[in-house]
Specification:
A hairpin with a 5-residue loop joins β1 and β2. It is built from 18 helices and 3 strands. By secondary structure, the protein is mainly alpha-helical. The termini are far apart. The relative contact order is 0.07. It is a multi-pass membrane protein. InterPro entries: GspF/PilC, T2SS_GspF_dom, T2SS_GspF_sf. Its main location: membrane. Belongs to the GSP F family.
Length: 441
């Protein structure tokens, strides 16, 4: 159990201070919430601080007699504390590398504290005072220092760590502008957790197909390098023996790969390097982003994920009082696909010229009719944010179904490919064996 000192606002507007005992900070925040208090500041008290103060007050004579060694102990404690702090200090310009799990934890804890009523800097200070050392402590420290010096939260994230990425930072900027940073971070934490769970499911689902692929390739290599050559020699040595056409093709392919495999590998690596350089070039990013949307199955997933992010972000911004035009600009900045962003530019331009939001979406030709119909309902009822949230839920459900379809198709496709490859090898072997037997007869 730990002792927390708090400063909070009561329901009547009065400021209350005091101490509470709880297992950890989230538990302390829940206790204050149950009491009807809105936390302004919540700090953990050092262990033994209360007991030390009481002892000093009750035994002043003893404190005087033991006054000499106290400075030495205090200096040692201060030195060790200073050394510990120096180990944790983030150097200027240094960037911290975070794992995905650490980013999710940072987002969840910060959104929970902001939702409980803490201001941004005290919340970061609380995370900086974590008992465990690690990268999260360093990130909280660096971000808090920049925020204290006047930087925006999103800018501070970019400066402290590259692990958050442009999308995360742009969404944080949108949350700051709308005053809904806690909501934006909460949704971002949910999105990151969902994405992490999906990646884990994909990895687990691909373990068995990957094993099948490796086993199939291994069997094919054994067939082409050992069994088929031996069988071919047997057929050739048999009077009137003739090698089947399929076996001839397989042997020719085996000889070709054995002779030129280094050159083939070099060509493949070179093509991949050239493709990556072309894809990453600023002049080709628009073309590549458009091409990704046309890839079967994957393109639909990318589109659905954009619709969910677009609708949720826009609903939060509009719901927190931002003008529609400014909300669209912030949502566009949080969109990483340049092809989609170009259509967002068209929507912003038309809305700025006085057209309705729904008609602007319709003119671009990119947004689905269901989304536009729900926007029309929101415009007519005057509750655009509610309509956008309902649309986001619909597209989130569609995204889940698309991902399930992809996962369901992976296994049959791999099995069919392996069955075709092994079946072809087995057919050639059996055909050659029957032909050899018929020649012997």
């Amino acid at each position: 159990m730990a002792v927390f000192k708090y400063k909070a606002l009561a329901r009547d507007g009065k400021v209350e201070t005091g101490q509470i005992t709880a297992d950890d900070r989230p538990s302390a925040l829940k206790i204050l919430k149950k009491r009807g208090l809105q936390p302004v500041n919540l700090t953990a008290q050092a262990a033994g601080a209360t007991a030390t103060a009481t002892t000093e007050k009750s035994t002043p004579a003893k404190s005087k007699t033991k006054k000499a060694p106290a400075p030495a102990k205090a200096s040692k404690a201060a030195a060790s504390s200073t050394k510990k702090e120096e180990e944790k200090t983030l150097e200027a310009g240094e960037k911290v590398k975070l794992k995905k799990a650490e980013i999710i934890l940072f987002t969840e804890e910060l959104s929970e504290m902001l939702r409980a009523g803490l201001q941004l800097e005290p919340a970061l200070k609380s995370m900086e005072n974590r008992e465990e050392l690690g990268n999260l402590k360093l990130v909280s420290q660096g971000v808090r220092q920049l925020v204290r010096d006047g930087s925006n939260f999103s800018v501070a994230l970019r400066k402290v760590s590259d692990s958050f990425g442009p999308l995360y930072c742009n969404l944080a900027a949108a949350g700051e502008a709308s005053g809904a940073l806690d909501t934006i971070l909460e949704r971002q934490a949910h999105y990151l957790k969902t994405l992490s769970e999906l990646q884990s499911k994909v990895v687990m689902a691909l373990i068995y197909p990957a094993f099948l692929v490796v086993a199939g390739i291994s069997v094919s290599i054994i067939f082409m390098t050992k069994l088929i050559p031996q069988l071919t020699k047997l057929i050739v040595s048999t009077p009137g023996g003739e090698i089947p056409t399929g076996a001839k093709i397989m042997m020719a392919a085996s000889d070709f790969f054995q002779q030129w495999w280094m050159i083939i590998l070099g060509v493949v690596v070179t093509v991949l390097i050239i493709f990556k350089a072309w894809k990453d070039a600023p002049a080709n990013r628009l073309t590549w982003d458009e091409t990704k949307l046309k890839i079967p199955l994957i393109g639909k997933v990318i589109e659905s994920r954009f619709y969910v992010q677009f609708l949720e972000t826009l609903a939060n911004l509009v719901g927190n009082g931002l003008p529609l035009l400014r909300a669209l600009e912030l949502t566009r900045d949080a969109t990483m696909n340049l092809y989609i962003r170009s259509h967002m530019d068209e929507v912003i331009e038309m809305v700025g010229d006085g057209r309705t939001f729904s008609r602007s979406l319709l003119k671009t030709g990119m947004f689905p009719p269901l989304l536009i119909d729900m926007v029309v309902v929101g415009e007519k009822t005057g509750k655009l944010d509610h309509a956008l949230r309902r649309a986001a839920e619909r597209f989130d459900s569609e995204l889940g179904k698309s991902l399930q379809r992809i996962m369901a198709l992976i296994m049959p496709i791999v099995l069919i490919m392996m069955a075709g490859m092994i079946g072809m090898m087995a057919y050639l072997m059996v055909t050659a064996i029957f032909q050899t037997i018929s020649n012997l007869q």
